[in-house]
Amino acid sequence: MTASVLSTATALSVPDFLAHWQGHRALTRRVIQAFPEEQLFTFSVGGMRPFGVQATEIHLVSAMTVDALHSGQWPAPDWAAGPTTQAELLREWDALSERLSQVGASTDPAFFSARHALPWGEMPGWVAAIYAIDNEIHHRAQGYVFLRALGLEPPAFYER
Amino acid sequence: MTASVLSTATALSVPDFLAHWQGHRALTRRVIQAFPEEQLFTFSVGGMRPFGVQATEIHLVSAMTVDALHSGQWPAPDWAAGPTTQAELLREWDALSERLSQVGASTDPAFFSARHALPWGEMPGWVAAIYAIDNEIHHRAQGYVFLRALGLEPPAFYER
Q: What domains are defined for chain A?
């Protein structure tokens, strides 16, 4: 295997990436549901933001990324916007998953290798896109600790 | 864009995937270092495993995945093995990062699309490989909560 052949070999295809993302979205949805409504936006450990606030940030970053998949543009979201109740969060979550299915099916394959201007810097599309998933896994895992601290069993991590 | 063209389009190339993994490994190393030695394998929130134990599991899953990148084989690790002190963990961490650099440069590109038999089921190589990164982000984020609960500032998530 020469370096030049390896450099263009595919690790994840675009459909792989989209399926991976949707699997994580389904798991995060179960974590949002696992919180008692009255604790989703109030309970915290170590002075961190409650999980509902973190999930709203995940939602805003994800919506920004889905929009960019469609338009190639990355306008900064209004971080003060977004759902503030469990029901509203789940409703907007489902709508975005549906929009990702639609937008994903017509993604420009050049999106991932092209460079993009984000509010926090210029980077290749794959770095910008996978950041949305990394950010989701990171904040969701903090929700796992909050659930444990509440004495609740979180959803299985390996189920997507 | 027809569905057939999109289905073979690359989201992440093999070098992208390897760079992404090494970036996460560098961040997790900083999280391991951020714990006071005396709390790495003892401190916990909500009855969870201490971060040192979680980091050892990350290490064993990662070592298994690096070995598979080289051999295509996935023997179950000895989960009772692995480092038990901060210094030993950091030493084994660095050795594995170095091994990933070597093994990664000669990865068979067919690894990611081929199906593999893991101790927990059969799956495509990309699913098996990215699970190691997902598992790392997930457990590392729980370490972030433990650090906050200890009154310590974790490393910046977006720095790799």
A: 13-149 (1.20.120.450)
